[in-house]
Design goal:
Length: about 350
Amino acid sequence: MLNRNSDLDIKHNYSLEKLNTFGLDVASEFFYIVKSLKDLRNVLLENKRKKITVLGGGSNILFTKFLDGLCLKIDLKGIDIIEENKNNVVINVMAGENWHDFVQWSVNNGFGGIENLSLIPGLVGAAPIQNIGAYGVELKDVFISCNTVNIKDQTEKEFDEKSCLFGYRTSRFKTIDKNNYIITSIKIRLTKEKHKYNISYGPVKEEIGNRELNLESISNTVIKIRKSKLPDTKLLGNCGSFFKNPVINESKYIELKKKFPSISAFKVQKNQYKVSAAWLIEFLKYKGKSIGNVGVYKNQALVLVNLGGATGKEVLSLANKITSAVYSTFKINLQPEVEIL
Ligand SMILES: Cc1cc2nc3c(=O)[nH]c(=O)nc-3n(C[C@H](O)[C@H](O)[C@H](O)COP(=O)(O)OP(=O)(O)OC[C@H]3O[C@@H](n4cnc5c(N)ncnc54)[C@H](O)[C@@H]3O)c2cc1C
């Protein structure tokens, strides 16, 4: 159905089932695919009173109910090298580009820095939201800035790396500026020469063995490990890690280590330890467990899966059960990594 007040093709009561990797059958009151910056400004201007939800690849969102207001699916495309010298390239990537395809494009062009982030689902525009990371590398390591449009007044603003307030699976866009900006593009710096290969993560080091270290071998290794550990979202709906790994102080860590000697944790900085949330969940025997249409993935306790026909409420109920069980045994508050709507 066309919106009567404009020629923007805004859909009404639009199913998002194919647009979220949990595969949840929810609908959005209004839905629009953003293909240009001009469109984005227009649609925001004409729908000032509606609640706006931004959707990328839907790989980090749990829809628990009908989505009121206007859902904007970001489909801005383009990859441009905007600066280049002997050692580095600066690339501007539009928010609607697929993240993994962009990583492969970089690897194929001999540009280094994001090969460890191969096969992370979703779109480029969502990457800064939680400062995506895997296997010892985070987006912030290569990030220069992002361009944004303010949802309320449609003004454009560029945020540099420092002002994005990146942290472990977080940024200003998840905290002080949650729901205020739409990221339209990002600028990153990659290496052309003297790549700094990062194989600090045990399984990557083991898997790569004696093979030559290069961008392709690291990317392929990461892809292989991820495929063996994580369920294919096309076969089993999921959003990757549902919870963040909790960070606790040293005295809490010492107390837990005494009670649970096999607890898995490592020091992240002075007086701070990151605990494996997967270990906590596995210890409580949730790994592989299913309740109704939802379950905890058999190969990775951090991943909640839609076993078929699940609702978002069912996923949330299992997540809440796990959070309560972890709290009652370890007195640790698990925080979701996934955005719950
Ligand atoms: C199998 C699997 C494995 C995963 N592995 C990892 C991993 O290793 N590391 C990791 O960090 N993540 C991982 N994830 C999570 C997910 O892939 C990332 O968080 C990804 O960046 C989400 O991108 P998306 O486009 O799907 O975002 P969506 O799920 O569509 O959106 C996520 C959040 O960002 C907001 N958002 C999206 N686009 C924009 C935009 N352009 N402007 C403003 N806000 C926006 C949304 O409103 C929402 O709040 C995994 C997910 C899956 C399914």
